[in-house]
Amino acid sequence: MFVALEPRRLYRQVAEQLRALIETGELPTGERLPAERELAERLGVSRPTVREALIVLEVEGLIQIRMGSGVYVSRKPPTKAVLPADDSDGPFELLQARCLIESAIAEEAARIARPEHIAALDALLAEMAVTLEDSHQALSIDRAFHTAIADIIGNSALNRFTGLIYDRRLSPYFEKLASYFEGPHTWQMALEEHTAIRDAIAAGDPEAARHAMREHLTRSQKRFSESFGEEPVRED
């Protein structure tokens, strides 16, 4: 029924295989899919990869994710299935890329930050603290915080790149994933992590700044790694 996959845009391959099973009726309408852990084992991929694939299929309307209950086939697929564009990166790919790149940016920023840079970060932290209930606003301020750190270095290309890679998370697939796992409590965590990054940069401690940024984006990945199913959450 399930075939182990080779490592090439795995979430797309998982979505394609599940879609084919729905189309042939092997996974009929109303049926509950195997739990995430079981799907990951059968396909030979990680649970985050399975999660990304399930989000693609839910955006297409092929499945319904019921938190705490599981994932169910909702209807037959449309005449022509629509996968993300070939250059669409999965949410976990994006977060990993940001972790690697922005950790280095924070490290360099800590070496050269001036008082006005720290004041700009403080203003964004204060603004974020009063918008935790509004995910749209919090997201905008979150982006501004990360690009403000790149601004410290004074390299326009680097600043533009930071903004561009951040904006990749505005895809319908990432937004759908965020709709399950993002809210005031996660923005509060992000605010605390942002504060740790700010403090390390203000202290002129490059190693601490790198660590704080890596910790922030690693924790962001974990916040999106909850289970859609009934089993307790465990890390892969």
TrEMBL record:
Keywords: DNA-binding, Transcription, Transcription regulation. It comes from the Bacteria. The keyword Hydrolase does not apply. InterPro entries: GntR_C (IPR011711), TF_FadR/GntR_C (IPR008920), Tscrpt_reg_HTH_GntR (IPR000524), WH-like_DNA-bd_sf (IPR036388), WH_DNA-bd_sf (IPR036390). Pfam families: FCD (PF07729), GntR (PF00392). Transmembrane segments: none annotated. GO terms for molecular function: DNA binding. Residues 216-236 are annotated as: Disordered. The keyword Transcription applies. SUPFAM superfamilies: GntR ligand-binding domain-like, Winged helix' DNA-binding domain. Residues 8-76 form the HTH gntR-type domain. PANTHER family: TRANSCRIPTIONAL REGULATOR, GNTR FAMILY, UXU OPERON TRANSCRIPTIONAL REGULATOR. This is DNA-binding FadR family transcriptional regulator. It comes from Neorhizobium huautlense.
